[in-house]
Structure of ADP-dependent (S)-NAD(P)H-hydrate dehydratase:
Amino acid sequence: MDQASWGQWTAAEAASWIRRPAADDDKYRRGVLGVVTGSIEYPGAAVLGVEAAHRAGVGMVRYSGPRPVREAVLLRRPETVTQPGRVQAWLLGSGLDPSRRSFMLSGDLQHALASGLPVVLDAGGLDLVGTHTGPTVITPHAGELARLLATREVDTSVEEIRADPGAWAERAAHETGTAVLLKGATTYVCDPEGTRIAVAAPTHWLATAGTGDVLGGILGALAATHHERLATDAAALTRLAATAAYVHGEAARLASAAAGGGPVTALDVAEAVPRVVGALLG
């Protein structure tokens, strides 16, 4: 793959996809993100995704999940709403096990997918790709992408994807008909229309547990804040995905700098997101 043929996402481009609230905005105009993530086994996925979404500037986060996970989410972010209601974009799948979906969870997922709203499909929601008609972006790492492609009778391996991630991200976009954000040291974002964007991580401390859940929350928030644009321009989701990857990387860089250049945790990255957003808008 010729990486030079992929566009590099800059701060100026990312800033153009951050929506600054207007004087007449309320929480609904700013966007409501519906979140169906986390499980008894992996409650942190929900906590981290919800945390990141709040910090990325969404007007409201509406969470659905098992009671113990809801309690963990509310303990960290009490402003989260846990009752059904109005939603403008969805984040689905982080921390879920596709083989252990309850009847209630399956119903929540199908309700979200039937809404026609923008959807971010992560981790345990990747098998649902193709069951949704709204703008969709999938956010796999190499292992998840290999498993997804195998279900579509595409013969590949994790090693092959890591050797040529951009080419495989493009293949996945055409196979699934969705925007693809393939996570890695360089994140590749593309769609079936031919948009190709590479976002290099500014620090490799980002390779730690839970940071993918944070990325999902940032991207879900951006989709919700741009719900009006996405209603008429589904392709905008690709650029929102590139912006999420940029914000994610910069938040990790700031968090590491605050630690003297040392390691960071996923929660450190989420907590640094407002500073990145503020710097972009400034």
Summary: Residues 162 and 250 are 23 Å apart (CA to CA).
